[in-house]
Design goal:
Alpha/beta knot; five-stranded mixed β-sheet; about 260 residues; disordered C terminus; 12 strands; seven-stranded parallel β-sheet; 7 helices; alpha/beta; 2 domains; Ribosomal Protein L25, Chain P
Length: about 260
């Protein structure tokens, strides 16, 4: 039986008892319906995890008894940042969730010319918090012990400026822009020696002007194949290929040979 994993962003020490936050309390008591003494795994995003058990359970509260620390890591050797054009509702939620499962280290939502989601004021903060909650849950489900941070939603111009600065400061950094008219594929590129950032447009993709601006800022244009993919499909496929080529996605020798041929 799979042991539930709970994320609690607080200092954790073997032998202590901690009160669960509201999200974890609902998950333990309403979703899993766990009783006192049930086994858990708890992590705080700083690496490693703790064996634990459910302590006291109330109608609106739950505590966790922290046990032995286990030094276990599941992070990819490839430091990946997803620069994702903001898409509608469930598409963006899906993209964020799967990006975490596929090992991204950072996620930056980007507002582009073709972004149709209108986010202003408090909605900007609430939507970012919503995506962070999806990240937290995806880490619990996928076995990750370090939690990617969803950056504040950024306009395209700000992302270009920041990326150009990163390239100027780190000669090993690689920035990629995905679009179906590019000539190079991911496996045409040399093995990166540093972090990799991937820019993907929203529904409708990036405009020609944005692609040109990205290339001028140092982004390398790449394609996934002859077909046009939905934004959420493009993210899933591109991250999978990057992790297979340079990260830790396990593929059998036969399957790898077939893909490369």
């Amino acid at each position: 039986m799979r042991i539930p994993r709970i994320y609690q962003p607080i200092p954790l020490i073997c032998g202590q008892t901690v009160e669960c936050d509201a999200q974890a309390t609902v998950y333990l008591t309403k979703v899993l319906r766990l009783k006192t003494g049930a086994d858990l795994v708890v992590f705080n995003g700083e690496g490693g995890e703790f064996r634990a058990r459910v302590g006291a359970v109330g109608r609106r509260s739950a505590s966790i008894d922290i046990g032995e620390f286990v030094q276990r890591e599941t992070e990819s050797p490839l430091e990946l940042t997803l620069l994702q054009g903001v898409s509608r509702g469930e598409r963006m939620d899906y993209t964020v969730q799967k990006a975490v499962e596929l090992g991204v280290a950072h996620i930056t939502p980007v507002v582009t010319e073709r972004t149709v989601v209108n986010l202003k004021g408090d909605r900007l903060v609430k939507r970012r918090d919503h995506w962070q909650a999806i990240v937290n849950s995806a880490c619990e489900q996928s076995g990750r012990n370090r939690v990617p941070i969803v950056a504040a939603i950024q306009p395209f111009t700000a992302v270009m400026k920041e990326s150009a600065q990163t390239l100027a400061e780190d000669k090993h950094a690689l920035t990629l822009v995905l679009h179906h008219r590019a000539e190079a594929s991911l496996d045409d590129l040399p093995i990166p020696q540093g972090p990799v950032s991937l820019l993907i447009g929203p529904e409708g993709g990036l405009s020609d002007g944005e692609i040109a601006t990205a290339e001028a800022a140092g982004f390398v244009p790449v394609k996934l194949g002859p077909r046009v993919l939905r934004t959420e499909t493009a993210a899933l496929v591109a991250l999978s290929v990057l992790q297979w080529l340079w990260g830790d996605l396990a593929v059998s020798d036969a399957a790898a040979l077939s893909v490369r041929e």
